[in-house]
Amino acid sequence: MQTAIVGRTGKNIIHPHSRRIGVESIRRRQAQKKDYSQRRAHRTGFLKQPLDVIPAEPEFPEDLLDDFFSDENFSYLTKCAVHYAGLLGKTIETPAGTAHERINRLYHRFVALLPEGEGLNFNFDDGQMRWVIYHIHKWNDHTLYWMPVKFITLLSGRMKEIAMSFMGLFIRNNGLGRFKHSYESEFFFEWSEENIDSGDFDDSEKQELYKLIKSYYSGEISVFLDAVYDHKPVDVAKALNEYLPASPVEKKLIGCFKKGLPFISSKYCIMNYYYDPFSECIYDEYEDYPPITPDRTVRYVYDMDDFVTKELEYMVNQNLQEAYAMEPVSSMILTPGSKRFIYDDYPERFSQWFFDMIETIKEITAEITK
Fold this sequence. Notes:
Layout: E1 4-5, H1 23-33, H2 62-68, H3 71-87, H4 99-111, E2 119-125, E3 128-136, E4 143-148, H5 157-173, H6 183-195, H7 203-217, H8 220-230, H9 236-242, H10 248-259, H11 294-297, E5 298-301, H12 307-320, E6 329-333, H13 346-369
Parallel strand pairs: 1-4, 4-5
Antiparallel strand pairs: 2-3, 3-6
Helix pairs in contact: 3-4, 5-8, 7-8, 10-13
């Protein structure tokens, strides 16, 4: 199975025989980032690791059990559970046994009280054990939410200014980092310097590839990607209402931008909707391969169909054979005075609009370039 990438718009016009970045190269890169000690690694290929909770008999090192499964933590967790159960109009019985046994029994009693769609986990911080309530949002599994911005170069005048403003706000307000500063981008530029010459390319292909990569690294494409990120926006809502579309595709683009206004508001940020119990806290130091973080699956790119983007996609797919991709999850750490856990549907709305936007970009690109 391959990770689906949203919005393919054409054929590979560069080359058919790329010398791919091997998984061993990626492993070496990861080893430079962090030294992960060995443990029984979870291997699910492209399947996501479920958001697990501590089982009834957790197999943790004794020092972790001693540090966290204490009478003090049990007392704190009980206060939080009793308080929250009261908010739900329910009661929870305090279990007996050792601190270890009581905490695990309390967990099972507490999770049974929660409404459907809500999960319960632990958070560990400096010896303190806390409850975390979470909700997994509906999301398109195995999908890279990569927003191409090359279509802006096909526009002109006021329409181009509006598109630059909208995309710049969309990128920044949702926490998408600069293109060249991403994990895959940095690795790709290092890899390409050493491997293009030894790849399965003829001389003309090598010249085209070097030209493209140079443009991405310091040339026209690099300048454009930074310009989109740094663009000082106009009043997008006002500009959209005042603009008179010059063609049916412009009219559709304006309509899609209007529907997307909630996604350029500083009130929401897709990167804030992430919580991953499996890799949090005590698990982290035992993880062989860290999960694919949201900044790698939700980002902006230049063109969905060129050599560079295809290689970046391949790198993510290679990593997904060893790890899993994080997806949007709302969460709340409980305290003895917490209010009810409430979550919204921003990730679901974000996902639906994203697909509509990709289809609109495809139509505009096809119409303008035909």
